[in-house]
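Supplementary Methods. Inverse-folding protocol.

Structures were first reduced to a discrete structure-token string of length 322. This string, shown here, constituted the complete conditioning input.
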């Protein structure tokens, strides 16, 4: 009996030692609200890495890009989705952030997140028509709020009071799923949703109602890009949500971030699992079809983690590092 006990104890100690020596292989990946692309795609990425990369990644619900940065900073997550504009603000300590936050690095850019202004009212045809209307501008602490500020300001209706509240629209602060429910119930007139199209919240809404997306005109897009060059003009084809016509809007990048203290080996395995397999995984999530090495390596505002840099270098791509 004593011999058996000693063998069990030795095995337990060996297991603990190996776990401690293998680096941080349990990663919490904070994504977004359940009705958004971050959560849906992030959960698929996490599950595939867990099943195939020798690391355990758990996708968890997030509350927007700013909140996700805070989760990394507070050590409540190791990986996070974030808009490319918000991560740059955090790293520089501007706009949404009172001081620089530099505890994180870039893993990769995945796809473009379109600014989608959705409504059930066909009479709301331009951004200017939102003046005086009840509009959801995204969850508090989300990058969507700042996108709404930028776009409404380009149209002259983005004025804020001393508390950061809009004065020319009746703003609500809701998640994508809650915004879709509020539209369906007639509680709001329109909603800003910044996510890769198609977005689950809008797709579900379009399954039972006729949805309309508000286009941005060329002149105001030019004004916006001059003020905020991290945006890029893009188009959402009418087939995505069965809208009457293609929609012209702007977008930012959806980027995966990681804490700096995660090992090079673990980050290498994580990014390799995404990009070694993405061409064969479009049936798991359509966003895999939008991935490319060129876009993945395009970030220049926040340095890439050493593990990501190693992977992309092996594939022949140079990334921004410290």
């Amino acid at each position: 009996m004593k011999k058996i006990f000693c063998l069990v104890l030795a095995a337990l100690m060996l297991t603990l030692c190996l776990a401690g020596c293998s680096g941080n292989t349990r990663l919490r990946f904070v994504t977004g609200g359940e009705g958004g692309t971050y959560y849906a795609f992030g959960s698929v990425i996490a599950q595939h890495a867990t099943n195939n990369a020798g690391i355990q990644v758990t996708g968890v619900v997030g509350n927007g890009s700013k909140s996700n940065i805070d989760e990394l900073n507070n050590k409540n997550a190791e990986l996070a989705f974030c808009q490319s504009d918000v991560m740059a603000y955090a790293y520089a300590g501007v706009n949404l952030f009172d001081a620089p936050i530099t505890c994180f690095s870039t893993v990769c850019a995945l796809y473009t997140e379109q600014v989608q202004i959705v409504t059930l009212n066909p009479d709301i045809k331009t951004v200017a028509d939102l003046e005086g209307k009840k509009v959801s501008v995204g969850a508090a602490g989300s990058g969507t709020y700042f996108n709404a500020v930028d776009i409404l300001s380009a149209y002259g209706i983005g004025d804020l009071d001393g508390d950061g509240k809009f004065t020319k629209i009746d703003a609500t602060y809701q998640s994508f799923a809650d915004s879709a429910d509020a539209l369906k119930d007639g509680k709001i007139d329109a909603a800003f949703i910044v996510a890769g199209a198609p977005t689950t919240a809008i797709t579900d809404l379009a399954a039972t109602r006729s949805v309309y997306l508000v286009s941005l005109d060329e002149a105001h897009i030019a004004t916006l890009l001059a003020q905020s060059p991290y945006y890029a003009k893009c188009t959402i084809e009418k087939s995505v949500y069965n809208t009457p016509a293609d929609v012209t809007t702007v977008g930012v990048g959806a980027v995966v971030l990681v804490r700096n203290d995660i090992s090079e080996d673990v980050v290498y395995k994580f990014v390799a699992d995404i990009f070694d397999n993405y061409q064969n995984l479009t049936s798991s999530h359509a966003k895999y079809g939008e991935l490319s090495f060129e876009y993945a390596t395009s970030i220049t505002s926040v340095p890439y983690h050493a593990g990501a840099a190693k992977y992309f270098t092996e594939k022949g791509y140079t990334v921004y590092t410290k």
